[in-house]
Amino acid sequence: MDFFKSVFSADPGAPPSRNPRSEDDEDDRADDPAEDEPSNDAGGGDGWNLGGIIKTFATKSESVIQTYRRDLEEFRSGLKTETAAIRDAASRAVRDLPGSLEAGASAAQVSLESVGHAIDGIIAHGKDAILALDAAPTPLLLLR
């Protein structure tokens, strides 16, 4: 754990402190197994322990999950609104379609009838002109 102490210490320039130990201290320490095990207490605050890391990770994960949940809820409500608007527009278009088709067909029929009347008038005028030429003496033939 000295690595974490050196990395996360308040004074980054200070090397980790090493206490010179005598051989008697080493012997005393070998007899006490509690000193060899790292402490899981959060009281000292001078190093990271597994419980603190897990708690921090769980807290951060919960925050991220809540943010995602909020974003998905906003997306869902927006998507619901847009879907309803599209559904309304499509239902209006389908409902108005037969009427608009009938109106379009009626307008097309009126246009075709007016074109037909114009063609009939042209044909009738041409026919009258041809019949008038056939019935009249041909002064053009006499001029030759």
Explain the overall architecture.
Residues 33-43 have low confidence and may be disordered. Helices cover 73% and strands 0% of the residues. 0% of the residues are buried. With 144 residues, the protein is mostly helical. The chain is built from four helices and no strands. It has helices spanning 2-7, 23-31, 50-135, 139-142. Residues 1-48 are annotated as: Disordered. One of its GO terms (cellular component) is cytoplasm. Residues 23-39 have a biased composition (Acidic residues).
Task: Please give a handful of descriptors for the protein shown.
mainly alpha; BSD_domain-containing
End-to-end span in angstroms? Answer: 131 Å
Number of strands: 0
Strand content: under 5%
Structural class by helix and strand composition: mainly alpha
Number of helices: 4
Question: Which sequence of SSEs, written as H and E, runs from N to C?
Answer: HHHH
Largest sheet: none
Estimate percent helicity.
Answer: over 70%
Spell out the blueprint of helices and strands.
Elements: H1 2-7, H2 23-31, H3 50-135, H4 139-142
Region (Disordered): 1-48
Biased composition (Acidic residues): 23-39
InterPro entries: BSD_domain-containing
Concise overview:
With 144 residues, the chain is mainly alpha-helical. Helices cover 73% and strands 0% of the residues.
